[in-house]
């Protein structure tokens, strides 16, 4: 990915064009198509206000999908997203209730809780060799149990700290929500991590063939564990942002993020069995899913129809460009 | 090695699941406040049967090295459908039952067709079709309601000869009439072969496509039987997203507890049934010991986590570190 040696900017441009993944191009094409369909329905779909609003909604999914992508690139999956998101939000709000110190520590506290659950996933997958689908399911159940026991099954009364609210809803740049900036920073970090660091390259290597990666001297178990911990931290951070957006945490607030995050990563051209995919595609997938959900709800289609179309569109798009080589 | 040793090695997972279940159930039964009675067994078996059918469905797909994340949604869909059409006279009811089972079969066939001919990954395919099935369920039952032929419902959830719970008999019948012939047929053997190594199965001329198609279709059918029983127990239809999802996730847990390898090629639906029964008993243990119901999710999660960690003991037997990577 980084072996472009062309000195001329023009040559570099051509080389970049050639390197574009057809799946990424197709998903960006689908975004344009969706906008076109939307604009036929109502003019306001192309207004900057609407688009910026969608970008803000997408940034929560974007942060969560970043973590999911790291794990999917390894050829694993993280099903613990729903309650890690919720745990991150609840723990951050709980910390925020403890005066000034609590308010300062709220965000790190939420993220650390997520990282801890992620670490548990990572140890299970990397060192105990438990299939990721089942260990993340189990930690999800444990996280749910802890949160239910902690809150007594009710919506917690603590509200989000000022910093959390500012991070999710404030505007440093006029007109652009801070949540979008947060996603941009995390996205930039993810691109750097995946393409410029040994850790990122090791993730791709393990996703392609863990045995070969191990034989070439990569500590595959440590990399896998760290990737899961990162995924947990990012999910929890997504929960912190969501809590800031809604100004409090709620039971099962993360349920709506598991399937869309997987779908976004896969629609963005990342191979579900690992080893292949670019962050650019994930950005496209996240925006695609968010736009699709938004357009369906603006058209006032009932929840039933929305689910039906949502599923059908995902299958259709995958049939167009996500097929495995025979 | 003598013949029975091979048999023992093959059935180890199933026997372990039976062992776990018997142990759990003994603890449960001896500590039950009402004591060990036909009534208690009937209640316990009615609750466990639903999960057992879904777990059987999941096991059949998992054996082909696939996964079906739409089983819970097929259960929800058929539950909603049954609350409309399994009513009226004997003939109407019979037609209704046939219609419900046919719908489940159709859902499974759609999954199979997309996975085989669309060449999409089972995980994403069934996530998307699951969303579609849930959409249809929501169309059928926007609000919980409906009814069912109560004579039939009571007959199938009651007791045979005053002792044997009918739901258990139905479960055994499904295992005998569906699983046993299937696993002994050419298609069934091909399903095991495909799960072990698709390439090798292809080279030996096994009917891979037919096997996968049959597996997904049967999974749909078995989920529909589960949905039918859910209607018999609750007398209503409800498109509940959370419970559909829970059935899917629990089915994976039950399959793992039942000794079916998530890598495919090893295990049996009988094991999955006992895995499901054991999983349900674990959930009920807390009520017996009079814990606060708030702690139930946590307890279930921790037991699930310990159960899946049992598989990690296999690592102690590994002689070559490369075997870690399977």
From TrEMBL, chain B:
<feature type="transmembrane region" description="Helical">
    <location>
        <begin position="295"/>
        <end position="316"/>
    </location>
</feature>
<feature type="transmembrane region" description="Helical">
    <location>
        <begin position="213"/>
        <end position="233"/>
    </location>
</feature>
<keyword id="KW-1133">Transmembrane helix</keyword>
<feature type="transmembrane region" description="Helical">
    <location>
        <begin position="160"/>
        <end position="180"/>
    </location>
</feature>
<keyword id="KW-0472">Membrane</keyword>
<protein>
    <submittedName>
        <fullName>ABC transporter permease</fullName>
    </submittedName>
</protein>
<feature type="transmembrane region" description="Helical">
    <location>
        <begin position="123"/>
        <end position="140"/>
    </location>
</feature>
<feature type="transmembrane region" description="Helical">
    <location>
        <begin position="12"/>
        <end position="29"/>
    </location>
</feature>
<feature type="transmembrane region" description="Helical">
    <location>
        <begin position="269"/>
        <end position="289"/>
    </location>
</feature>
<keyword id="KW-1003">Cell membrane</keyword>
<keyword id="KW-0812">Transmembrane</keyword>
<dbReference type="InterPro" id="IPR001851">
    <property type="entry name" value="ABC_transp_permease"/>
</dbReference>
<feature type="transmembrane region" description="Helical">
    <location>
        <begin position="50"/>
        <end position="75"/>
    </location>
</feature>
<dbReference type="Pfam" id="PF02653">
    <property type="entry name" value="BPD_transp_2"/>
</dbReference>
<feature type="transmembrane region" description="Helical">
    <location>
        <begin position="95"/>
        <end position="116"/>
    </location>
</feature>
<feature type="transmembrane region" description="Helical">
    <location>
        <begin position="239"/>
        <end position="262"/>
    </location>
</feature>
């Amino acid at each position: 990915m980084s072996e472009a040696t062309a000195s001329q900017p023009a040559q570099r441009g051509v080389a970049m064009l050639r390197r574009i993944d057809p799946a990424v191009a197709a998903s960006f094409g689908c975004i344009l198509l969706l906008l076109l369909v939307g604009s036929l329905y109502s003019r306001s779909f192309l207004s900057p206000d609407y688009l910026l609003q969608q970008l803000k909604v997408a940034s929560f999914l974007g942060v969560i999908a970043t973590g999911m992508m790291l794990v999917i690139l390894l050829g694993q999956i993280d099903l613990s997203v729903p309650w890690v998101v919720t745990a991150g939000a609840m723990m951050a709000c709980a910390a925020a209730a403890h005066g000034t110190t609590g308010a300062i520590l709220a965000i790190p506290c939420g993220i650390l809780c997520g990282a801890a659950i992620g670490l548990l996933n990572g140890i299970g997958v990397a060192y105990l060799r438990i299939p990721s689908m089942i260990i993340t399911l189990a930690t999800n159940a444990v996280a749910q149990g802890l949160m239910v026991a902690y809150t007594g099954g009710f919506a917690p009364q603590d509200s989000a700290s000022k910093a959390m609210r500012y991070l999710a809803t404030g505007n440093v740049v006029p007109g652009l929500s801070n949540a979008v900036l947060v996603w941009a920073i995390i996205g930039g970090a993810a691109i750097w991590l995946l393409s410029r660091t040994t850790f990122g390259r090791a993730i791709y290597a393990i996703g392609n063939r863990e045995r070969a990666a191990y034989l070439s001297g990569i500590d595959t178990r440590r990399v896998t564990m760290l990737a899961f911990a990162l995924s947990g931290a990012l999910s929890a951070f997504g929960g912190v942002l969501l809590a800031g957006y809604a100004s409090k945490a709620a039971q099962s607030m993360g349920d709506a993020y598991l399937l869309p995050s997987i779908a976004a990563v896969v629609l963005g051209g990342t191979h579900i069995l690992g080893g292949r995919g670019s962050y650019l595609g994930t950005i496209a997938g996240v925006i695609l899913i968010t736009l699709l959900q938004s357009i369906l709800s603006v058209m006032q289609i009932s929840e039933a129809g929305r689910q039906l179309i949502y599923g059908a569109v995902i299958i259709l798009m995958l049939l167009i460009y996500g097929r495995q080589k025979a | 090695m003598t013949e029975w040793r091979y048999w023992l090695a093959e059935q180890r997972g199933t026997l372990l699941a039976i062992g776990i279940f018997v142990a759990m159930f003994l603890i449960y039964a001896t500590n039950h406040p009402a004591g060990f009675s036909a009534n208690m067994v009937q209640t316990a078996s009615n609750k466990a049967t639903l999960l057992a059918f879904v777990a059987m469905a999941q096991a059949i797909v998992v054996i082909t090295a696939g996964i079906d994340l739409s089983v819970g949604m097929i259960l929800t869909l058929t539950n909603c459908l049954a609350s409309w059409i399994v009513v009226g006279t004997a003939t109407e009811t019979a037609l209704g039952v046939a219609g419900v089972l046919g719908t489940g079969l159709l859902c499974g066939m759609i999954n199979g067709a997309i996975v085989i001919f669309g060449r999409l990954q089972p995980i994403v395919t069934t996530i998307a079709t699951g969303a579609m099935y849930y959409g249809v369920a929501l169309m059928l039952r926007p609000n919980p309601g409906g009814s069912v032929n109560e004579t039939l419902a009571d007959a199938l959830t009651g007791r045979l000869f005053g002792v044997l719970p009918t739901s258990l008999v139905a479960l055994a019948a499904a295992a005998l009439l569906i699983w046993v012939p299937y696993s002994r047929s050419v298609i069934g053997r091909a399903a095991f072969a495909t799960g072990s190594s698709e390439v090798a199965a292809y080279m030996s001329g096994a009917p891979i496509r037919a096997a996968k198609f049959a597996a997904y279709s049967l999974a749909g059918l078995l989920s529909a039987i589960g949905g039918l029983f859910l209607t018999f127990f609750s007398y209503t239809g409800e498109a509940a997203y959370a419970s559909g999802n829970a059935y899917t996730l629990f089915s994976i847990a039950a399959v793992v507890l039942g000794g079916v390898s998530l890598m495919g090629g090893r295990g049996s639906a009988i094991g999955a049934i006992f895995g499901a029964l054991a999983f349900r008993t674990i959930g009920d243990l807390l009520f017996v010991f009079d814990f606060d119901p708030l702690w139930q999710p946590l307890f279930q999660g921790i037991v699930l986590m310990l159960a899946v960690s049992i598989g990690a003991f296999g690592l102690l037997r590994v002689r070559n570190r490369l075997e870690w990577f399977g």
